Amino acid sequence: MSSQQRGVTIWFTGLSGAGKTTINDALTKELRDRNLKLEVLDGDIVRTNLTKGLGFSKEDRDENVRRIGFVSNLLTRNGVIVLVAAISPYRAIREEVRDRIGDFVEVYVSAPVEVCEQRDVKGLYAKARSGEIKQFTGISDPYEPPSNPEVNCETHKETLQESVNKVIAKLEEMGYLPASVVA
Ligand code: ADP
Questions:
Q1: Residues with CB under 6 A from ligand 1
Q2: Is 59 exposed, middle or buried (0-12, 13-18, 19+ CB in 10 A)?
């Protein structure tokens, strides 16, 4: 199976704390269990190496996404399933990356900003509110939702497993995964 799998980039976008990493981790585990070749590019990790030094201006955020997209494209065209979790707040650059890669599944991971702030997984919202962090997406910096994402995960309304299942169902429907026997 793994030698003939189709490459695809699964791109999770959404606010900090919306659930991108959580869904990505769970999906990664399920795909690994199926023995598929995959690679994960998590925004927080990428920013410590591939895009180290970039900040949070629109220009730098777009450059961050462009570089992640570049690597994703190399992997995708070599038959790898690439899982990207990055806030990637600007629609135009996401569209640019989508057009370049072609095999691209955009997953909009959303919850109201109040919910994300209440979760405050990494304590960043508190820092954004106090002004310690500037240009924080959803608080003091824009987020442009996808206009036509392949998958919508509303994490304030659904369980983690439901979110994961939605992505898997879409991958199956689009022919990136063989359909599973489970309905
Ligand atoms: P992000 O990567 O988008 O910044 P995280 O995945 O780090 O967000 O945090 C999301 C938080 O929301 C986690 O604490 C997670 O347990 C919680 N959560 C609640 N419901 C869901 C769901 N359906 N899917 C994903 N995460 C959820």
A1: 14, 16-23, 85, 109, 119, 121, 155, 158-160, 163
A2: exposed
Dihedral pair phi/psi, residue 135, rounded to 5°: 50, 50
Within a domain: residue 104?
yes
CATH code for the domain in which residue 23 is found? 3.40.50.300
In a domain, 2, yes or no: no
Task: Judge whether 88 counts as a catalytic residue.
Answer: yes
72, 88, 110, 163: which one is catalytic?
88
Q: How far apart are CA 104 and CA 146, in angstroms?
A: 13
Boundaries of domain holding 30: 8-173
The answer as to whether 69 is a domain residue is: yes
3 lies in a domain? no
- Alpha helices, DSSP H, located in 12-122: 20-33, 43-46, 58-76, 91-101, 113-119
Write down the pTM of the prediction.
Answer: 0.94
Domain count along the chain: 1
What does pLDDT average to in each consecutive run of 10 residues of the chain (183 residues)? 79 98 98 95 95 97 98 98 98 98 98 98 96 97 97 98 98 90 50
CA gap 136, 15 in Å, rounded: 10
149 backbone dihedrals φ, ψ, rounded to 5°: -70, 150
Identify the residue whose tokens are 């220009």.
59
